[in-house]
Amino acid sequence: MSNKEGSGGFRKRKHDNFPHNQRREGKDVNSSSPVMLAFKSFQQELDARHDKYERLVKLSRDITVESKRTIFLLHRITSAPDMEDILTESEIKLDGVRQKIFQVAQELSGEDMHQFHRAITTGLQEYVEAVSFQHFIKTRSLISMEEINKQLIFTTEDSGKENKTPSSDAQDKQFGTWRLKVTPVDYLLGVADLTGELMRMCINSVGNGDIDTPFEVSQFLRQVYDGFSFIGNTGPYEVSKKLYTLKQSLAKVENACYALKVRGSEIPKHMLADVFSVKTEMIDQEEGIS
């Protein structure tokens, strides 16, 4: 007991060695000193950066929502007779998404994009997915990252309506040019998500009696999967995570194509969509082994 009291008393005496007035000395710091002025400027800079980050997060959410709506619209092509009208409507929606991306480009003017990349990557991935889905429906091919970035170059002449927004920097640049480049990671993740939409497109097509689309999609998915296999574990962590989902989508489409090829004439049209209800336990076992 005496040792504990002694140690406690020692701590108390050590604490009392500092005069009371010295411990409160920090409250009397001169607010106009160079050090305080410097830290105030740091505070203002960090607050401005945080506000910009929050604005980019909100824009990214808008881009994600509008891109998803475009994808939902494009899925109607398999059952609608007016394919050209839906493609035209989807292009209008994508133009609206690009106007949101134009605002992102304005926010990032003069900034290092990689410092704010986390705030906008979700929206850019969804935009890549929507654009590549539309491009595949038109051409049955994969759009390149260069083609996507060419559509993300904006000038004030083409987007005069955006000049009226008070938060934009276009008021100081009447004839400026803004551009936003999709990074390779955004492009790869968007293409990986595209494979899931193509698998759903196959289900809708087979349900409507379209036998050709699954074979076209199967060949395309095989090429995409081969491309991702070349990347392997050397790519970003997010890409390797989505490789499993890509393999599942490819297996479902290939199994459906096999069933259609072997016994397609025997299956009634109203039951064609059931060929996609193939269990994936074998895929899970292969993933566990590898």
Automatic annotation (TrEMBL):
Mg(2+) binds at E129, E197. Residues 1-32 are annotated as: Disordered. Pfam families: Translin. Its main location: cytoplasm. Gene3D superfamilies: Translin, domain 1 (1.20.58.190), Translin, domain 2 (1.20.58.200). Residues 16-28 have a biased composition (Basic and acidic residues). SUPFAM superfamilies: Translin. One of its GO terms (molecular function) is sequence-specific DNA binding. GO terms for cellular component: endoribonuclease complex; Golgi apparatus; nucleoplasm; perinuclear region of cytoplasm. Keywords: Cytoplasm, Developmental protein, Differentiation, DNA-binding, Golgi apparatus, Isopeptide bond, Magnesium, Metal-binding, Nucleus, Spermatogenesis, Ubl conjugation. InterPro entries: Translin_C, Translin_fam, Translin_N, Translin_sf. GO terms for biological process: cell differentiation; siRNA processing; spermatogenesis. There is a cross-link at K279 (Glycyl lysine isopeptide (Lys-Gly) (interchain with G-Cter in SUMO2)). It is found in: Cytoplasm, Perinuclear region; Golgi apparatus; Nucleus. Acts in combination with TSN as an endonuclease involved in the activation of the RNA-induced silencing complex (RISC). Possible role in spermatogenesis. Belongs to the translin family. Ring-shaped heterooctamer of six TSN and two TSNAX subunits. Interacts with GOLGA3, TSNAXIP1, SUN1 and AKAP9. Interacts with the homodimeric form of C1D following gamma-radiation. Interacts with TSN and C1D in a mutually exclusive manner. This is Translin-associated protein X. It comes from Aotus nancymaae (Ma's night monkey). The lineage of its organism: Eukaryota, Metazoa, Chordata, Craniata, Vertebrata. The gene is TSNAX.
